[in-house]
Design a protein that fits this description.
single chain, 171 residues, alpha/beta, Double Stranded RNA Binding Domain, 7-stranded mixed sheet, flat
Length: 171
């Protein structure tokens, strides 16, 4: 009987530990101060015009996947406005030696967006000119231009995910 008592006590303690988790609900935190957003056309100050549509589509896709916001195509139908401005892509060579030009084939391509989220009437600014950056490693075995062109779509997807995260997770 004495050996059964610790086992029952341990079992009761274990069962009480799991009942505390039964009522836990994973939520997104505080509710958003707006329920619909209009993603304005992306502006670009650089030499990669296809990045505008790729980033716009990626942000819209990520916001619609979350489900907390409705996307509106007309700015007057939305409660908030998201303005995205892209900077020219930056390149950083990461594997190079001064005496061997053949090793300079790995680089990091970064794309930075400056985002402003405001109410539709502009009276409330939720955040202004927030920089959001995404980077991707690439190898230029087949040339730098084809490598950058191929990397632009996954880079825009990552930047879109990070911008949507900035919009949704600030509250």
């Amino acid at each position: 009987m004495r050996s059964l008592l610790p086992a029952l006590l341990g079992l009761a303690l274990l069962a009480s530990g799991f009942t505390g988790c039964a009522g836990y609900r994973l939520t997104h935190g505080a509710p958003l101060p707006f329920n619909a957003v209009h993603v304005e056309p992306v502006t670009l100050s650089g030499p990669v015009p296809q990045a505008r549509s790729l980033v716009h589509a990626a942000v819209s896709r990520e916001l619609s996947r979350d489900g907390r916001l409705d996307l509106r195509s007309a700015p007057d139908a939305a409660a908030a406005r998201l303005h995205i401005s892209l900077a020219p892509p930056s390149r950083t060579y990461t594997a190079d030696r001064p005496d061997d030009a053949g090793l300079s084939r790995k680089l990091v391509l970064s794309l930075t967006a400056t985002c402003t989220l405001s109410s539709a009437d502009g009276a409330t600014v939720y955040f202004a000119e927030r920089p959001v950056t995404a980077s991707i490693d690439l190898f230029t075995d087949d040339g730098q231009i084809p490598a950058e062109y191929q990397a632009l779509s996954p880079l825009a997807d990552e930047l879109g995910r990070r911008i949507a995260q900035a919009v949704l997770d600030v509250w």
